[in-house]
Design brief:
Length: about 160
Amino acid sequence: MRKPLIDKSCTSKIETAIKYELGHFYLYKHLAICMQAVGYFGAMDYFLAESKEEDDHALKHINFLNDMGVMAKLPSLSPEKEVPTELYEALELAFENEKDLLDYYKSFYKEEVLENPEIAEHLNFYIKTQVEAVGFYGDMLSLMESEKDNKNICMIVDSKLKKLA
Ligand SMILES: [Fe+2]
């Protein structure tokens, strides 16, 4: 084992980030299955693609820790409790989870970057990714809210998600 080039506090924050990213990997698989069950196949495809991306995000943290001479500890994950049956509900869950993670990365950045500049470059990718995810789900929710009287809005959003998957 190499001598770690990163302190314990940063390591444990990255391990928490791995837990979040793998949690999202799992969340999106769950949302894909929930949407498949109610016939939103565009949303299913979109969430499956998201799930793969979350797996990559976790791996990027694991590789960063390895570069820093640390072997990542993988977390145990707990099952998702909520089972959305509406497209809006699934998008809302995605939005809330992405927003939580954005807040987490922001505090991580504030707490560690001055003392550990090497962490800045690594975290920038995640902050950008979170801002895009929060923005995207926020847009989908706004669209559904402003078109709530349109009977076809769920199918419109579902086909939009299919194109983006
Ligand atoms: Fe992610």
